[in-house]
Design goal:
- By secondary structure, this protein is of the alpha+beta class.
- It contains five helices and six strands.
- Helix 4 crosses helix 5.
- The longest helix is centred in the last third of the chain and has 32 residues.
- The chain is globular, with a radius of gyration of 16 Å.
- The termini are far apart.
Length: about 150
């Protein structure tokens, strides 16, 4: 588990001791096609997921403005569930295994507690999550502009 964590962008460069501490509240999940990782509108689940291998699809049924499914690979997106972890809000979309995947599930409550107790790691991790969210906002902004441009709005 420690090796897998150390190879993710979220935990890269974290000390072996700190990775060992974090690994205590992580589980390795092996998923088959169709297995659900996150359920849209689910409340009370603050776990974070790191895609190690394989493909997942993000599915949202709450709006007719989006296509039904988007397939993502590890190269596209490595981290899932970070918004629910930060805000404790309902999940905004479902994440389903597309064709087999390996995932690390991180207990969100225990991670939050560990980061509060270990502020030097807390700063690094929350900064990386903030950078991830910023990149995703930039991508969404770019996509929205393309959509509006193509619709002549």
């Amino acid at each position: 588990m420690i090796k897998m964590l150390s190879e993710t962008s979220l935990f890269k460069g974290i000390s072996l001791k700190q990775l060992s501490d974090i690994a205590e509240f992580c589980d390795r999940l092996v998923l088959n096609e169709g297995d659900m990782l996150i359920q849209e509108d689910e409340a009370g689940n603050s776990d974070i997921y790191v895609l190690i291998e394989g493909n997942v699809e993000v599915v949202s049924n709450n709006t007719n403005l989006t296509s039904g499914e988007v397939v993502l690979s590890h190269e596209d997106k490595e981290l899932f569930g970070e918004i629910g972890w930060l805000t404790n809000a309902k999940r905004t979309a479902s994440v389903r295994c597309y064709d087999g995947a390996e995932v690390i599930r991180i207990d969100g409550e225990k991670l939050m507690q560990y980061l509060e107790e270990t502020p030097e790691v807390g700063f690094i991790i929350t900064r990386r999550i903030a950078q991830t969210l910023s990149q995703r906002m930039e991508e969404s902004d770019r996509l929205l502009k393309q959509i509006l441009w193509n619709k002549n709005i």
